[in-house]
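Progress narrative, work stream C.
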Amino acid sequence: MSIEILIVDDNADIRNILNELIVDAGYKTRLAANYKQALSEIDKKMPDVAILDVKLDKGDNDGIELLTHIKSKNKDVPVIIITGHANVEMAVNSLKHGAFEFIEKPFDQTRLLNFIKRAVENLNLKSQNKEYENKLFSSYELIGNSKNILTIKDQIEKIAITESRVLIKGPSGSGKELVARKIHKKSKRNKNAFIILNGALLDSNKYELELFGEEKENGSISYGALEKANRGSLLIDQVSEIPLAIQSKILRVLTDQKFKRINGNDDINVDVRLICSSSKDLKEEVKNGNFREDLYHRLNVFEIDIKPLNERLSDIPLLIEYFNKKICDNYSIKQLEIDDNNSYILNHNWQGNVRELRNLIERIAILQPDSKEKISNIVKESLKKDDFFNKIQENDLSVPLKEAREKFEKEYLTIQLKKFNGNISKTANFVGMERSALHRKLKGLGIKEFN
């Protein structure tokens, strides 16, 4: 990887010293003498690393503005701030805005080169991690035998071969992006791009730029998500967070299949399959005036609803087995002996859903415990805050025994039913009851049976 470093300083001598120093160290450079030149260089092509003087020709904090601009376009680019007017407040302010390092003039050349070396190592590490995550994510399968997951697998097979827009509902960490990727992978568009735009992570002023792109004064073009996804699929994650003003523009694109870039005059025709996901109930958002009803109906041609993990406990053993093999293979270690019938696992609330479970398995793999007992202790320590039995102790000691017992039985049998995917025979066998007796108990406790 050939590293390119942007040097921004209004002092020609400093620029030349930096340029010579950095080129001798084996890096490529680009130079800018003022704020406007720097902005043009950044927008023309994002550098791998930037070295910015704080005070240029535009004002006292030009460098901080450029730093903010770089981070808005790519938060992973390391930026080293240099200044001849240093104070504690300025240093703190630059680091607060995402600077990698802060160094005063006159700077020690060895120290600056060490900063650059560390910045490049940081950049390479993030790049490797992204590549690893993308490979890992793209190879993940949708795991489970619950009715919900089996239904979703069937829906993916049927909807993928169509061109219909899809709305994927589900709590955070449940696998909405994975479902979207599976739809794209099985579609006729699978040779083309799959682009993700996260509505919850964008700056409120950047939505239009990120969607439609921009034509700049210098003639360069910044392409938006719609053009990047042309002839492919675009996933708008957390679509509920898109501002109303931008929602109307998305609706216009869906109607016309074309748009104009910011500052552009020509129509750009696009052929994009739109997939949207949301952790919020869009019907409620429509009622509350936060989401356009006409756009909701346009997006919700076909709906996929992923249930929380704590409503499909029968999937947990399969997920543990799957992540255990997948993660241990990636770490090149032997598979872990994780008891999927562990009470802490089955009774945990799993607010982070499948992602939280995967993180737990990865945490165990990183620690590499050498016994079942140590694995069990890691599980207990990780999940103890939401442990069901702790809740019983904390909340139910002040109620009469009969009421506490009924509450325990209801919670216990509900969990066992979910664990066995609603199968009465298997549940009865596990809890040690006759099938007919379990039916009566469930009815008496007001527990609704499901298939």
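Work stream C, second folded protein:
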Amino acid sequence: MHTTWGLENARFDPKTITTLGAYDGVHRGHRHILDRLLERKAELGLDRSLLLTFHPHPQEVLRRNNTSVELLTTIDERLELIAETGIDETLVIEFTKEFSQTSYLDFFHQTIVRALGSKAMVVGFNHAFGKNREGDAEHLKKIAPGMGIAIEEVGPVTVDGISLSSSKIRSALKERDITNANIWLGRPYTFSGRVVHGDALGRTLGFPTANLEVDPVKLIPADGIYEARVILDGKRWRSAVSIGTKPTTHENGVRAIEALILEFKGDLYDKILTVELLRYIRPQEKFGSLEELRQAIANDVAGMRGNG
């Protein structure tokens, strides 16, 4: 997949089929839209399938009162996942407050038609763009035919009667519902971080952990102990991951992410680890002693090994 950064670098091609959106998570609903985009490209005999997305994510620019941004995917993760779908090109447009005031009509005429040369579009049923999100599928169906652009609206993807969305996946992760989050994503939820120095308490307890520094815009699930896989240099290692404030040993309330990698021996400092969350094990607890904490960790590890 080719990635184009900036609208000023967009390439006009009159045989283009386009979709657009934030695509945070690139979940099964998103993939359904992109699959249909590729099908329509073949049906119409077009040459280029193009996804138009935004960076920074609109939430980062439009957030109010210093609210936190919690994304399922960083821009690099998003592009990597999109590339796996077979899309020809992704155009990443810089999202600014000024850009957010562009009307959907101006954006459609100037970008979709004039800059890209789109001949057709595929959009999700709940998609909207432009100032105040006025450019929904119904508006597109009214204005696009006059420009010779075919519009197809893709309905929702449902699992057990639940319509998939990025917001539902975010909520599941905040509720420790890793099972459904992974089902709706179509893969394990992941985050990556650099290994930084911690207090070395895990080594004292006989269970050395890697302390991870993660991109602050990335959604980290609710506090607790999780079974996971850690990817290092292309190899996956079974792991237990602790997310939380370490209440037994710390009172500062600072949240930390620690990975206990089973069977691994070696120096991890400054390496980048990717964590794939598999299931929730238990909540974080404040134990009465370090020995009680050590025994709880040992039980977690034994339970994981017992699961195969």
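The domain at 166-306 is CATH 2.40.30.30 (Elongation Factor Tu (Ef-tu); domain 3). No further action is required on this item.
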